[in-house]
Amino acid sequence: MDRKEVLDMALSLAALSLGFSLLYGKGLGLAAVLALLPVMAVILLLAFLGHELAHRYVANRLGYFARYEASYPWLALAVVLPALTNFIFAAPGAVVVSQYNIWGRASPRDFFYISAAGPATNIGLALLSLPLVHVVPMAWYFAKINAWLALFNLLPIPPLDGYKMFRVYPAYWAIALAAAAALFLLI
User: Fold this and answer.
1) Which residues are catalytic?
2) Domain ranges of the chain
């Protein structure tokens, strides 16, 4: 990782942390939002970075060059929307993957796996935290945020993961979307 990629990840993490703090602290005052900020930062360190690094890892394992790039307009949306509404735009950037792998090939199946890696990571993290939801208060936030990141990213809207997955294997995409939606509603 170079400095630009690390900076983009750090800015995205900060924007999402502030956005989720605004969303969950809404109506409780500035002190509540500020108190939630470090909690959200720790949660998103695992949830958001786990999601993006999973994309990057799978892409690299399949022979593709991949790097995270922030989208500065989307960073702003991650903060502005939860401040004004009850919705968070949870895509402050994306892992950009080369079109061809090191063998000079590109496979739709590869891009399905790369796209599925992020939401699958969030679904897994949410499921792992479910037993702790009623025991550890912050586990609810961890589970809910991971379920939201999976559900949001599985929407079949370009450039989200769900769009890329739907185009290759619509049935598998539908299963993933149903799992993320059920998990989000359950928590």
Assistant:
1) 52
2) 3-186
